[in-house]
Amino acid sequence: MSNIDFYILSKSGEKNRHQFVCRLTEKAYNLKNKIHINLDNNKKSTLMDSLLWTFRNDSFLPHSIINLSSKNPETPITLGISITPVERYDLLINLAENIPNDAKNFPRIAEIITSDEDIKSSSRKRYVDYRDQGHKLTTHKL
Fold first, then answer.
1. Contact 39/45 with Cβ under 8 angstroms?
2. pTM, rounded to two decimals
């Protein structure tokens, strides 16, 4: 089973959520982790792709967007829309509304929650689903 970390941000808005994802990704990358970021759609994937290059002037986070034909890229950080890589990764950052089907294949999963009501509502459902699947859950209020 996976260790699931729910990061509860005190702020609202997708911008705050995405900035936190960039910082978390950078920290995990610096620890030599392979990271996959799961997203809902192309618009969110394009935005996150851009942010990973620009969120800080002195940061470099090598990443690529995967699709059905490129499930095993060379980069240590990948982004995908309901697609997860075939090879082993250390961390899944789930920004999608639902839990990916193969989430159990990741040793760690991060769920990033803002104070927005729609984000909180969908995260509560995922929390219950993870719990019912037997994962270890931890909440971090930031």
1. yes
2. 0.93
